[in-house]
Design a protein that fits this description.
This protein is α/β, with parallel strands linked by helices. It is built from 8 helices and 13 strands. The relative contact order is 0.18.
């Protein structure tokens, strides 16, 4: 039996691999730095005598000791963990150059080819931005509530689109492409709904992450963009990412269980 943990800024993801090879995912809010007790708390129902190894990555994983109750702790570089997990979940061939977008609290871009991974770009805009702006503008940090609001809102009621600001098309961009995020707010005397504000927040973050990713993919001459992390679980944000990627003729992948790609990658590397 093996376990693996990814200490994220907002959420700590953990997975358990049984002797039968089945994967069980667990998570908890990251309220403090990595400590031995967090590992024990998240797996408090587990008999640690059956655990062969524990892989750790993310955050300040180096703060964890190299041994817990006689169980070896394997420390895995976060970039390598994200890359290994994302490629495994996506099914994209390793020999095909790809850009992996890890969209969590912030957004990082990793170039992948032939099992080699290196960080090549990123932005501070991500899921943490959605939560922070939602707290300021909507009075909530509940992801489910934000997702529900955004799904029922229309970002065009807060954003200026191309047809609002120019008289003709710009290149191949559709007329409803965002020109200025939240640009309509200052000009609008009417009250804006919470749903439309939520949609605008999610669209802002999704488009920013997508533009970073597509710019990097263009620079590295790859067509596949693999998006993992917890942020794409926002339905509207995923749609923003997909739309932006397709506009630029890139092939976006949103692998199932991408929210624990880093924890899985750490386990896969530890197994090697």
């Amino acid at each position: 039996m093996q376990i693996s943990l990814d200490f994220g800024i907002t959420v700590t993801d953990a997975i358990l691999k049984t002797a039968e090879g089945e994967i069980e995912h667990r998570s908890l809010l990251s309220e403090e730095g990595p400590k031995d007790k967090i590992i024990k708390n998240i797996f408090k129902d587990l008999d640690f005598k059956q655990v062969e190894s524990i892989a750790v990555t993310g955050g300040r994983h180096e703060d964890i000791a190299n041994d817990i109750n006689g169980i070896k702790i394997v420390h895995v570089n976060e970039v390598q963990a994200i890359g290994e997990g994302a490629m495994y979940l996506s099914g994209v061939p390793n020999n095909k150059g790809s850009i992996i977008v890890n969209s969590g609290s912030g957004t990082s871009c990793i170039y992948s080819k032939n099992g080699d991974y290196f960080h090549c770009s990123g932005t501070g805009v991500g899921g943490g931005t959605v939560l922070g702006l939602s707290k300021l503008l909507l009075g909530t940090t509940d992801p489910d509530e934000i997702n529900e609001l955004a799904s029922n809102g229309d970002e065009r009621n807060v954003d200026l689109i191309i047809e609002d600001v120019v008289s003709g098309p710009i290149g191949q961009l559709p007329s409803d492409t965002t020109a200025v995020n939240f640009g309509k707010i200052a000009k609008n005397k009417d009250t804006v709904s919470r749903e439309d504000i939520a949609a605008g927040i999610v669209n802002l973050v999704g488009q920013t992450a997508a533009r970073i990713a597509t710019s990097v993919a263009f620079a590295y001459e790859v067509s596949d963009i693999i998006v993992v992390g917890r942020t794409p679980t926002f339905k509207s944000l995923r749609e923003s990412l997909e739309k932006a990627a397709l506009l630029t003729n890139f092939n976006p992948h949103f692998p199932e269980n991408g929210h624990y790609a880093s924890a899985l990658g750490a386990m896969l590397i530890a197994e090697k």
